[in-house]
């Protein structure tokens, strides 16, 4: 294979990647704690974890190319200086910065960015399939997209059990506010 062939192959690959990723956008999730107690917010595959006292917020940028993930709150946590510890609910392997999903019970926000098979849509839902631990709401920045709420153990907007998911769509590029204890 000559240098010209390698050069042309590299240019074709670059053009394909630009066209394929065109329109793929990331999102920002702002998690706000309105609870009267500290909640340790968590997210995978990006985010990790963050302690949020009442009134505090945490902004997590999810880059384009991240297909799907989830956020949840953890309660009654205790961590040492190196980030090791435990939470009563939503624990993710005994660490502050989660690399694993939380253990039940955990109220979940789930998302898939740019998952509309080329039509540039994000999909999102609330889920109590892993149980309920913290009331929350999810509000997309695009006013035409549906806001969702899960208060107490009554979650009419939440995905409860298969086969009836309650997934909602929003144009890609929206940002999302997650309120703990709305």
TrEMBL record:
<dbReference type="InterPro" id="IPR017949">
    <property type="entry name" value="Thaumatin_CS"/>
</dbReference>
<feature type="transmembrane region" description="Helical">
    <location>
        <begin position="6"/>
        <end position="31"/>
    </location>
</feature>
<dbReference type="GO" id="GO:0006952">
    <property type="term" value="P:defense response"/>
</dbReference>
<dbReference type="InterPro" id="IPR037176">
    <property type="entry name" value="Osmotin/thaumatin-like_sf"/>
</dbReference>
<keyword id="KW-0812">Transmembrane</keyword>
<keyword id="KW-0568">Pathogenesis-related protein</keyword>
<protein>
    <submittedName>
        <fullName>Thaumatin-like protein S2</fullName>
    </submittedName>
</protein>
<keyword id="KW-1015">Disulfide bond</keyword>
<dbReference type="Pfam" id="PF00314">
    <property type="entry name" value="Thaumatin"/>
</dbReference>
<keyword id="KW-0472">Membrane</keyword>
<feature type="disulfide bond">
    <location>
        <begin position="92"/>
        <end position="98"/>
    </location>
</feature>
<keyword id="KW-1133">Transmembrane helix</keyword>
<feature type="disulfide bond">
    <location>
        <begin position="77"/>
        <end position="87"/>
    </location>
</feature>
<keyword id="KW-0611">Plant defense</keyword>
<dbReference type="InterPro" id="IPR001938">
    <property type="entry name" value="Thaumatin"/>
</dbReference>
